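Hi all, long-time lurker, first post. I run a small reading group and we've been trying to get comfortable going from sequence to structure in the token notation. Rather than ask abstract questions, I figured I'd post a concrete chain and ask someone more experienced to write out its structure so we can walk through it together at our next meeting. Sequence below, copied exactly:
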Amino acid sequence: MFCSKNTPQNLMVPYIVDQAARVGLPSRFLNVVKEHYCFKLGNRDYAQYNFSYISLTQGVYDDLRNVSLARSGVGTFYHESTHAFMDIKRSVDPRYKEIFKKGIAYYKDAPLINGAKANDPEYLFGEAVASYVGVRVHGWATALDSLNFVFTKLTSSDFVYQKSSVIEHLEGIKKSYNDTMAMRKYGYQYVDGFLGFGSKQADTSRPLPDWLAKFLDREILEGRIPNNFMDVPVFRDIEASIRLAANELQ
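-- Answer (accepted) --
Happy to help. Here is the structure in token form:
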């Protein structure tokens, strides 16, 4: 047995998934992953397909104690869970088999930033998919955390900023979110080295295709993480509350 379902880390996962659902993050695919994979503590973050477990570092588990906070571990959890989910679905769902086929063909010979071309398009495709999901989730959580922070400070008795500063900060949150969602260059493979030793990570400059982004937005992200800040209902509500409170300032 390579991973026990009774480890503290694995017992923590239902709590993490419940938190994610409550704050508005996608969670359906996480429920599938926790049924097929177990989670363990490790010295690096990765999904092990052959033995159906996900290894995460202690820092990631610490971050996951509150998924509504903008900590990098939330994105890592979604990244590795996406790897596992794609592995699960690939063997049972013809739609995912087709996505793998198209994705591997798309990333064949993709340019890498070191000037070389990809020679492992399947690995590159997998990292592009997982990174897309993880980055967007982290960007969403960052925006929510920032909005809640501004609103909490704004309504506290010791808040001393001017209205213009509040509005400027609010616009910065919106821009950061929209910029993150506009990102399309994801994925990497390892190059150089021998038998895994001395290898380096080389990102691809080939953008993630629209057909793949739309598939992931629908199938994994549940349409909950749109490209535009104003398309997120909870963000609009908090922004309206912030602007209303800011009107009382000088």
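A couple of things your group might point at:
The chain has a mean pLDDT of 91.
The longest helix spans residues 121-154.
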